[in-house]
Design a protein that fits this description.
Strands 16, 17, 18, 19, 20 and 21 form a six-stranded antiparallel sheet that branches. Strands 11-14-13-12-15 form a five-stranded antiparallel sheet, with no helix packed on it. The longest helix is centred in the first third of the chain and has 29 residues, at about 55-85. It has two helices and 21 strands. The chain has helices spanning about 55-85, 90-115, and strands at about 5, 10-15, 15-20, 30-35, 40-45, 50, 115-120, 125, 135, 140-145, 150-160, 170-175, 185-190, 200-210, 220-225, 235, 240-245, 245-255, 260-270, 275-280, 300. It starts with a strand and ends in a 7-residue tail after the last strand. The protein is α+β, with helices and mostly antiparallel strands. The protein is elongated and about 120 Å long.
């Protein structure tokens, strides 16, 4: 997801760069012969981006191809003579060796020619062009950048105290100031195997889906991690009334056109930020009293001032 720089002498596979060693006799500097892309263009995998000067290699290729035709003809003659016992088998072996050597030299020259054709290693969006037609380039010179931002990697650190609650594939969401309240979803892909001894924190890498390519590498983002998510019923914690080890709430029921507060036993679960989970005792659409709970009695008539 981070920008990948296409460099002379390098090919990229996926999101990893693989260095190709310069072959013996391979010139260190090349002139740009053709440019086939524009700034910011969207390209497909293996699409030609640029061609370096390759006239010398093509001339050597033609010479070797002519020599190959000659060796093929010689091989046919020697093989015919050898079948008639008119020449030694060693002569035939020597001709075959020359033929194979020439074929190998052609393959090597063809590989050098292919190295002079710079292609997109994967589909993505190009950045600014850093070279012009006729420019002299050498291994390591930056030609352009290529970004595949269909998904974005995001690295962030967490304190060691939450290490036991972080796991691979946990859902995360990201929001950035540039897009207001819009959320981008993803998951945790990698958890670093080490904890920083100075900060007592560890790095986590997430993958964020970016199908519309709105997110760009380098943005500052806020990350939310969803741990063991489940759908539950919750009420404000102030609704609870404790009697010993039991928990109760007042549920507002309508009887004969009047509203009555009914004391109802509930089983509670986890609490968070002033809200408490209700495991049993309430239905989804029940109305519970949140203010004036202490003053109420079971079965008392109530006058609802407001509903939230």
């Amino acid at each position: 997801a981070a920008p990948i720089i296409i460099q002379r002498g390098f090919h990229a596979a996926g999101q990893q760069n693989a260095t190709h060693q310069v072959r013996e006799g391979h010139p260190q500097n090349e002139h740009v012969a053709e440019v086939h892309f524009k700034d910011g263009e969207k390209v497909e995998k293996n699409q030609q981006l640029m061609i370096l000067e390759k006239a010398e290699e093509e001339a050597r290729l033609r010479a070797l191809q002519a020599k190959l035709v000659e060796f093929n003809a010689a091989y046919a003659r020697v093989k015919n003579l050898e079948s008639k016992k008119l020449t030694a088998t060693a002569t035939l072996d020597q001709t075959i060796a020359q033929l194979h050597q020439t074929e190998a030299e052609i393959d090597a020259i063809q590989a050098q020619i292919n190295d002079r054709i710079i292609r997109a290693p994967f589909s993505g969006n190009l950045g600014f062009r850093q070279v012009s037609l006729g420019a002299l380039v050498q291994p390591g010179d930056i030609i352009t950048t290529l970004d595949d931002i269909s998904q974005i990697k995001i690295d962030f650190s967490l304190p060691e105290t939450v290490l036991d609650s972080i796991a691979l594939n946990l859902e995360i969401s990201v929001d950035v100031d540039a897009f207001g309240d819009q959320q981008f979803s993803g998951h945790i892909e990698t958890i670093n195997s080490r904890v920083d001894p100075l900060t007592r924190s560890f790095l986590v890498r997430g993958i964020i889906k970016n199908p519309d390519e709105l997110l760009k590498p380098g943005l500052l983002a806020r990350v939310k991690i969803y741990q063991k998510t489940r759908k539950v019923s919750v009420i404000p914690e102030v609704c609870l009334l404790s009697k010993g080890k039991q928990q109760f709430v007042y549920v507002v029921k309508e009887q004969e056109g009047q509203k009555i507060a009914m004391l109802t036993k509930v089983n509670v679960g986890e609490s968070q930020l002033g809200r408490v989970e209700i495991l049993s005792g309430l239905d989804e659409n029940d109305e519970v009293v949140s203010h004036g709970v202490i003053k109420l009695r079971d079965g008392q008539l109530v006058n609802v001032k407001s509903e939230q």
